[in-house]
Amino acid sequence: MSRPPANRAGHWPSAATSVVGVMGDPVTQSLSPLLHNTAFADLGLDWVSVGFPVGAGQAPAALAGVRALGIAGLSVTMPHKSAVAGLVDELTPTAARLGAVNCVAREKGLLVGDNTDGQGLVASLRRGAGFDPAGRRCLVAGAGGAARAVVAALADAGASEVVVVNRTAHRAAEAASLAGGVGRVGDPAEAATADLVVNATPVGMAGAATERARPLVDPGLLSAGQLAVDLVYHPLRTAWLAAAAARGAATMGGLGMLVHQAASQLARWTGREAPVEAMWRAALAAVGRGGDVGGRPPGEAPGT
Ligand code: NAP
Question: What is the pTM assigned to this prediction?
Fold first, then answer.
């Protein structure tokens, strides 16, 4: 990876380098530093991203450290997204609605909490799959943090309907309410008639206890003319996506969402547009090309 140009100190990193990091537990597996350092290098910015291992319950101390040390920004991951929402000075409307923060930016001396997961998914739909949610019928499987962000973002993007299916009923209702008038709880069988079907559960995730669990939506319900998206990106192409593709559905994995949510974070911190193509290439190299990615690079024009 190329390095930012020498700063005033003539070397990098230096005492003048702006520091951001990803805070979570575990954190060493996070791709955020790779994505952000790739972007900083591409833009020639004197910034660096590192990992901050912060255990459960330690978010207040970590945020105090961010304030005291002049850390320029944070990516926030498990288990801190909810806790950090209660610790920043301001929340964006999206973060307030979700009650969860995945990005902290220092703006005019205040710590502002944002949530870029949903806009990451919508950006990857538009740029990676040529799919605009406006006026489309969407079904989201899952009601956790990622699903909630996706449900809200699809509604904001103009979806005509956002149906939520989940193992635990009351969580489905809570998630569906984030889509306002177009949200409702539904049945997995409704996937057969949706334009977009999103798996927002960890079913199929390599190494997870749920890797071989039964998916909420039977891929046998899907067919040509539909888009199936799995938020899981390891493997790049889950068994559920492969089965959906075999049925003729278009498919896209979760790596584009990961890249775009990170791109939005970088834009918030630096005021610069993120180089999503470079970030995509770095992410792809890191996760490994374990078969078809299920989706085009985020910036590539949709083909046939
Ligand atoms: P979470 O908050 O723990 O929520 C997990 C959801 O999955 C819950 O709705 C849960 O249902 C459901 N679930 C878990 N195991 C299940 C099973 N065996 N069968 C059916 N449903 C099951 O997790 P999250 O943060 O939302 O993350 C979900 C997935 O999205 C993970 O794989 C994560 O890696 C991925 N993700 C990807 C990106 C990206 O950028 N691509 C971003 C964020 C997350 P209950 O409510 O019934 O427990």
Answer: 0.93
